[in-house]
Amino acid sequence: MRKRSKGRKFHREKSGRKALMKSLATALILNSKIKTTEAKAKELKSFIEKKISCVKKGNLHQRRRMLDIFAPPVAKKLFEEIGPKYKERPGGYTRIIKLGRRPQDKAEMAIIELV
Description:
The protein has 115 residues and is α+β, with helices and mostly antiparallel strands. Helix content is 54%, strand content 17%. The chain is globular, with a radius of gyration of 15 Å.
C-alpha cells in the first residue's frame, strides 16, 4: 500500500531541494522577511523552525551543525541575535502572510517573516 510522502518536491532532485531551502533560509535569517511562493514559504517554515529550536540550546554541537549548513556570518547571526531573542518562546518563530496570485503565472505568493 502506497503511503503519503512528507514534504514537497518542487520538481527538483534532493540536492536541488536542499540548496533551495538553504538559500531561502539564509535570506530569511539575514533579512528577517522574504517574499516567495506560498508552497515554498510553508516548506521553509518547518525547515527554519527546526534550526531555530536547535540554536536556542546554544551548545558547541549545535554551533558546528549550523556551520555545516550555513555560512559563518549567517550562523553567527543565528547564535548572537536570533537564538537569544527566542529563548523564552516555545515555538512559532515565523509568520506567513498570504499576498494573492502573481500576475505572470498565477502562483500563490506569500511573505514569510520572523516574529
